[in-house]
C-alpha cells in the first residue's frame, strides 16, 4: 500500500488540478489504496493458511437437514437423490418446508423421499419468507446439529460427512461451519460461466481468509451446518433479506466462532437471467447493510471479527467510487482522457492473474482430494478477471440504495 501511495503521487497531482487534491486523494484511495491493501492482505493470509486436520473423518452424530422450498417441484428431486447418496454413517433426518408453494413441491418431496428410503418430514408455512420457513422447522429439530440446504443445491457424496467432521474436530466455541458452494449450471450461458469462477475463486477464497481468522462472516443458508442449541439461543433466523448474514453476525457477537470447510462441497444453480442475477446480488449487498445496522462491528467481542466485519464498512464507499469514477474513467481513457485510467492501468492485469493463479492452485488441490475435475472455462475466466467487477459494483450500489430507500424486499 505504501508503494502504491508513492507511485501515485504524480497521479494525485494531475487529478488534483481538475478536482482539488483532497478530492483526488479521496477518489484514488477508493480506486487503488484500499483495494490494493485488501487484495494483498487476502493473498498473504491465504499463502500462510493451513487448514487443520480432522480429528475424525467418520462422525456418526445424527443430523437434520432443513430445506425451505418455494415452487421447487422440478428441482427438489435431484437434491433429495444426492442426500440419499451420502456416505455419512450417522442418521440423517430431512425436514422439507413448503413455503406457500403453488405447485406440487410438498407432494413430490414426500413421494420421492419415501421411494429413496429417507427419513423425511414435510411441513407447511404459509407466511412468505425463508426465515419463517426455517424457524418453523427449527421447532421440530431434535438433533445436536442441523444443516440448511437450498432446494436447488445438490451435495457431493462426502459433503455431510466432511461438514460434520469439521464441526466435531473444532473447539467448543465453534457454532457453525459454512460449506463450499460451487456452480452446477455453468454451461448455460456467459453469465453462468463468469459466476463459476466467482464461486470457485472469489467467494471460496474470501471464506478461507475469514475462516483463517475464525470469523467466517456468512454461514450461508444455501449450505451450512449449525449447532441447534446456538441457533435457538439467538432466536432463530431473523426477519431480514440477508437472514443468514445477520444470523452469523449474531453468533460472532456472542463470542462464538464460525469455520469454513473447503472440502465439504455442494453445487448450486446460479441465475442465468441478468435480471435475476441483479436481484440476487443486490439482495446480498442489502443483507450486508442489514447486518451492519443490527450488529455493529465495534460491538464484536473478538478483535479479528471486529476487523473483518469492520472491513465491510468501506465496501459501499469502494463500490460507489468504482461505479461512478473508475468505470467512467476507463471509458474516457479510450478517447485519450487519462484522468482516472491510462496505459499504466494494464500493469494491474499481471497482478490479478497471479493472485487468481495462487487461488486456483489451492482449489485444484481440494478438487483432487475429492476426485473432481475442474471444467475448462477459459472465456469465463478472462471475463471474470476483466469485467466482473464492472458488473458487481453497480449491482451492489443498487442493493445499498434499496436498503436506504427501504424498498420492498424481493427474495426471488
How would you characterize the overall build of this protein?
This protein is α/β, with parallel strands linked by helices. The chain has 15 helices and 8 strands. Strands 3-2-1-4-7-6-8-5 form an 8-stranded mixed β-sheet, with helices on both faces. Helix 4 (76-84) runs parallel beside helix 5. The model has no long low-confidence stretch (mean pLDDT 92).
Topology of helices and strands:
Elements lengths: L1 H6 L1 H11 L1 H28 L14 E7 L6 H9 L7 E7 L6 H11 L3 E6 L5 H9 L6 E5 L3 E3 L3 H11 L4 E10 L6 H23 L10 E5 H6 L9 H11 L3 E12 L5 H21 L8 H9 L3 H19 L14 H22 L8 H27 L8
Parallel strand pairs: 1-2, 1-4, 2-3, 6-8
Antiparallel strand pairs: 4-7, 5-8, 6-7
Organism: Neobacillus rhizophilus
InterPro entries: Nucleotide-diphossugar_trans
Family: Belongs to the glycosyltransferase 2 family.
What is the share of helical residues?
40-55%
CA radius of gyration? 22 Å
Largest sheet, in brief, is: 8 strands, mixed
Mean model confidence by pLDDT: 92
**Number of helical runs?**
15
First-last Cα distance: 40 Å
Q: Would you tell me the structural class of the helices and strands?
A: alpha/beta
Work out the strand percent: 5-15%
Number of strands: 8
- Overall outline: globular
String of helices and strands: HHHEHEHEHEEHEHEHHEHHHHH
Strand order of the largest sheet: 3-2-1-4-7-6-8-5
Unreliable stretches, pLDDT < 50, 5 or more residues?
A: none
InterPro entries: Nucleotide-diphossugar_trans
Keywords: Glycosyltransferase, Membrane, Transferase, Transmembrane, Transmembrane helix
Transmembrane segments: 20-48, 313-331, 337-360, 381-401
Organism: Neobacillus rhizophilus
Amino acid at each position: 500500500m505504501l508503494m502504491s501511495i508513492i507511485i501515485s503521487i504524480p497521479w494525485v497531482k494531475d487529478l488534483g488540478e481538475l478536482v482539488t487534491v483532497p478530492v483526488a486523494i479521496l477518489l484514488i484511495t477508493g480506486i487503488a489504496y484500499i483495494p490494493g491493501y485488501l487484495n494483498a492482505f487476502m493473498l498473504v493470509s491465504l499463502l500462510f493458511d493451513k487448514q487443520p486436520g480432522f480429528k475424525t473423518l467418520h462422525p456418526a452424530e445424527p443430523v437434520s437437514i432443513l430445506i425451505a422450498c418455494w415452487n421447487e417441484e422440478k428441482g427438489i428431486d435431484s437434491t433429495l437423490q444426492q442426500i440419499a447418496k451420502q456416505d455419512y454413517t450417522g442418521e440423517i433426518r430431512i425436514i422439507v418446508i413448503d413455503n406457500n408453494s403453488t405447485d406440487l413441491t410438498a407432494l413430490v418431496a414426500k413421494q420421492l423421499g419415501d421411494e429413496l428410503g429417507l427419513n423425511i418430514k414435510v411441513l407447511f408455512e404459509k407466511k412468505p419468507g425463508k426465515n419463517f420457513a426455517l424457524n418453523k422447522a427449527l421447532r421440530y429439530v431434535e438433533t445436536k446439529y442441523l444443516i440448511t440446504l437450498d432446494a436447488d443445491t445438490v451435495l457431493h457424496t462426502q459433503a455431510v460427512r466432511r461438514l460434520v467432521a469439521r464441526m466435531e474436530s473444532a473447539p467448543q466455541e465453534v457454532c457453525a461451519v459454512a460449506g463450499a458452494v460451487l456452480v452446477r449450471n455453468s454451461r448455460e450461458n456467459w453469465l453462468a460461466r463468469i459466476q463459476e469462477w466467482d464461486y470457485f475463486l472469489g467467494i471460496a477464497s474470501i471464506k478461507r481468509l475469514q475462516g483463517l481468522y475464525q470469523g467466517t462472516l456468512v454461514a450461508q443458508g444455501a449450505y451450512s451446518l449449525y449447532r441447534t442449541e446456538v441457533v435457538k439461543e439467538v432466536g432463530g433466523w431473523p426477519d431480514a433479506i440477508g437472514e443468514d448474514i445477520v444470523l452469523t453476525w449474531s453468533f460472532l457477537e456472542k463470542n462464538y466462532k464460525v469455520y469454513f470447510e473447503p472440502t465439504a462441497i455442494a453445487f448450486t444453480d446460479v441465475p442465468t437471467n441478468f435480471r435475476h442475477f441483479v436481484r440476487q446480488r443486490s439482495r446480498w449487498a442489502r443483507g450486508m447493510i442489514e447486518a451492519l445496522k443490527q450488529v455493529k462491528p465495534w460491538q464484536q467481542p473478538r478483535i479479528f471479527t471486529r476487523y473483518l466485519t469492520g472491513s465491510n464498512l468501506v465496501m459501499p464507499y469502494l463500490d460507489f467510487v468504482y461505479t461512478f469514477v473508475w468505470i467512467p474513467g476507463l471509458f474516457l481513457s479510450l478517447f485519450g482522457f487519462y484522468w482516472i485510467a491510462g496505459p499504466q492501468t494494464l500493469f494491474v492485469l499481471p497482478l490479478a492473474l497471479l493472485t487468481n493463479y495462487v487461488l486456483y492452485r489451492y482449489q485444484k488441490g481440494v478438487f483432487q482430494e475429492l476426485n473432481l475435475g475442474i471444467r475448462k472455462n477459459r472465456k469465463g475466466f478472462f471475463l471474470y478477471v476483466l469485467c466482473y467487477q464492472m458488473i458487481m459494483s453497480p449491482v451492489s450500489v443498487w442493493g445499498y440504495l434499496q436498503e436506504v430507500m427501504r424498498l420492498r424486499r424481493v427474495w426471488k
